[in-house]
Write a structure and sequence with these properties.
Elements: E1 4-7, E2 10-11, H1 16-24, E3 30-32, H2 40-44, H3 47-54, E4 58-61, E5 78-81, H4 82-91, E6 97-101, H5 103-106, E7 129-133, E8 149-155, E9 159-164, E10 202-208, E11 213-216, E12 221-226, E13 230-237, H6 242-266, H7 268-285
Parallel strand pairs: 1-10, 2-3
Antiparallel strand pairs: 3-11, 4-5, 6-7, 7-13, 8-11, 8-13, 9-10, 9-12
Helix pairs in contact: 3-4, 6-7
Length: 290
Amino acid sequence: MSLNLQDIPRVKTLTKADFLKYYFAPQKPVVIENFIEDWPAHTKWNLDYMKSVAGHITIPLYDDRPVDYKEGFNEPHAKMKMSDYVDLLKSEPTKYRIFLWNALKEIPQLQKDFKFPDFGLRLMKGIPMLFFGGRGSNTFMHYDIDLANIFHFHFEGTKQIILFDQKQSKYLYKIPHSLITREDIDFNNPDFTKWPMLKKAQGYRTKLQHGEILYMPEGYWHYMQYVTPGFSLSLRAIARNPKNFSRAIYNLLIMRNYDNIMRRLKGQKWIDWKNEQAIIRTHESNRTTV
């Protein structure tokens, strides 16, 4: 048995009016296949090019190790020169990923390679983020702290993506005071005996190829796995739904700081309690006994 996932709709291209009507208004994801052919990035951006322009920069790296109470919110697990990291990506599988890297601030010339598309949303132009990963590496299932609308542009290789909207949270074994699900869930091959509520979750899936764009609506859960080494650019627009916007403020100002304080005060007991509560709360909310 596998997860209940439907393919994300795909279009060749998309006008602003159609995007707003058919995808933004109903908050549905979509993949746009042919939209950035006029960007220099479409032909220039690959791992070798990134190595040539950013090889000297030391970058933060993340992997899929379990959360440790000693680590702060989004604290990197390692650091490496970009040139060495690209060599690693091209030579062997690795769990190391670059996460939320504002490379365009450090490498201004990259800003000439792309445009901010007009989809009718005001994009936050100061924080275009890059994400890199090696073959087989993946993120935990999570949603972004600001619950933003996200346009995810993929370059080089193939990336597999699974999405759930916030209505599915009650089935996903969400960790309280966090933005992730249980880290020991394999969303590619879930154990429904251990995680029975996942059978009720209804989501989406797709595989992104070079030059394709994925629109992820506000607060969507996402799991991403690099089928081959590659990287992506994310542009984001602030949450427009008042409920989502208020939750974003809460996450940024209260939840994140509260979690860091509890880690310092209770250590690993806090992490263990949260992991236990993810199971208890999920099963209780669905009136299911364990």
